[in-house]
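May I ask for a protein sequence together with how it folds?
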Amino acid sequence: GSGACMSLSEAMAALTNNTATRVMLKPGRMCKLDEVQRLAAALARNTSVTDLRLVDCNVNANGAAAIAAALPTNRHLRHLSLANNRNLLAKGVAAVARALQPTPSRRFYCPLHTLDVSGCFIGSRGAEELAQMLVRNATLVAVDASNNGITSVGMQHLAHALATGASVRRVRLRDVTHKAADLVALADRLVENVTVTELDVSDLYAPSATDALSASPAAAATKTEAARARRQITALLRRNRFVQRTLARTSLTLRMLGQLARQLRLRE
């Protein structure tokens, strides 16, 4: 499983014959829909690949739907990147998101750890689909939804997901909305979350040059509010890292006690 980019034929062979742990097409490779569908069909049966990267490969919404259809039968994939596929859109990310959560008729879903859909033009509708998935998914550790034209509405859905039990720990939301109110709302909802330890919102409320130079009381108050929200987010992430370290130590202690108990029983 080298980290080198593959041709389409090499990727197909690796997926079909289970000869690699990482499959990464060369970025900029303009895949046709039938090619993506063949890759997806091979992925459904694959038992070796843990990392699939189709970055900037012209995967559209129908291609994403084909990949999504393969996920419920794949128990080995851990990392999936569909970044910079500009025609993926909300419909494509919706298909993937729905495949990564349990349903009444399907309890199993692919135990993915990281999902990258940055630069896919998913908008706020796609952000809502991601948010619904994050509430129900118990395996994802990291999600990147940067550079997607997500507005305040989409941010509200994502903030709600983080406040209602999402297990994800690392979230990237660069270059989303530019409203201070969204940053404040995110900080307020993060109070209820103890799992997120990394949150990249470095471009969330990046004031324009006009705003930055404005001396009006309203502009000054907005900048103060945004700065306070950033400090709150930093403090909450620090708290969450402490909580997660404490839980990890507690879990390790419990495992050691369990092992000791079993050894004592064996000696009796």
User: Anything to note?
Assistant: The mean pLDDT is 90. The longest strand covers residues 22-24.
